[in-house]
Structures are given as C-alpha cells and as structure tokens.
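Q: What would this chain look like folded?
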Amino acid sequence: MAIQNPYPWGPPYGGPPPSPANVPAKDVRPRRIWYLVAALLGLVLAGVGVAFIVMTVKNTVGSIDTAHSFSSGDSRTFSFVQGKTKAIYVSQAGAGHVVCRIPEMRSGSMTEPDSTFTITAGSRTWDRVLEVKPGSSGDYTLTCTSELRSAEFALGDKPRVGATIGSIAAGIVCFLAALASTATIVIVTAVRRGRHRRRLAAAWAPAPQWGPPPPSGPAPWSPAGPVS
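A: My prediction, written as structure tokens:
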C-alpha cells in the first residue's frame, strides 16, 4: 500500500509557538534589593518627619512653666532677664477679661500681643494674653486676675510662631518626600525589571522547530513536453 505524504511541499509553516524562556529572578536587573532600599528610605524620611513634629510639640508645650501656675487673684514671683520677652498664659473655661500687674517693673514693660497663640497641654488649654519685656534683670512678683475665678495663670517663653510653623512644615515635607521617593523607586524598578526580563526572554527563547515557509509561485516541476 502506497503512503501518501500529507505535506507534498514540505512541513507547514508556523506551528505551535515555543514555550517562553524561564528567566531566573536573580538575572533580572535592577535587583530586587531596590525594593528594600525604597522601604528603608521611606521609613527614614517618615521617622525624620515624626521627629520634627514631636520635638516641635514637646518644645512648645514645655515652654510654659505649668509647674508654677497660680490661680486668679493670687501672686507668684518669677525671675526675669533684661531684654528677654516672656509671655503670660491663662487657662480658663470662657473669655473672661484678664488683668495682670507687676508693680516693681517700669510702665510699658507689659503689652498685649498682636496675635493669639494657644497651646494644649494635657487637659488644659493655655492662651497667651500678655507679654513682658523687662528693662532689668531680677525677681518680680506677678499678680493676675480674671472675671472667671477658675482661671489659672502661668508664665512661659514667648512663642516662636515662625519657627513652630517651619518645623511642622518640615515634618510634612518629610512625609511627602517619603511617599514620593518610595513610590518612584518601586515604579522605576518594576518597569526596568519588566523590560529587562522581556529582553532576556527573547534572547533565550528556543529556535522554531518547523521549517521555513513554502516558496511562492508555481510548483517547482518541469513543464510538460517531450524530453530531448
């Protein structure tokens, strides 16, 4: 019995595609360690931001001498330094009118600030009401009263509003930098690894197992006619 060749013109072109090359992860560049670098960098920048904010809040709260506070109508003696401005804070449940006096200090040493400044320490909120700039160093007795008898007074440092806002802004910038840098490194690393993986897979792909396509044009046989 004669067996007919099912492909008289050679094997068909094409065939099933070769299986993709298996590229080991260790051969792909850049290395995956950059993901760890991104995470560590983000943690460091976020930690710096937290440190900025925490230290700012701590220094601001610590600038009020709450350990030596006194009630409305009472007096307390404080040490003042010439030229160093101190602030008087009040903690009261309302907007009671405040009056403070330092009899031994020259007139004009106590002034009202142009802006408000509030600090929350524990369960109390302290509002800056007056500022004192002594003309000479020494111990002076401060007496304060308020329309609200439950008011508490304390002496503290003059708030550095600009420095406080700057420190908090620096902390926020560190948080944003942590987010941006981490996302950028992760995205760039993932994109470049994907491209490098595809290049390696193309270079390592096995050659096709089927032959070239059949020639185009008429069949490669001799024309009919007498043979000389």
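Residues 161-204 form the longest helix (44 residues).
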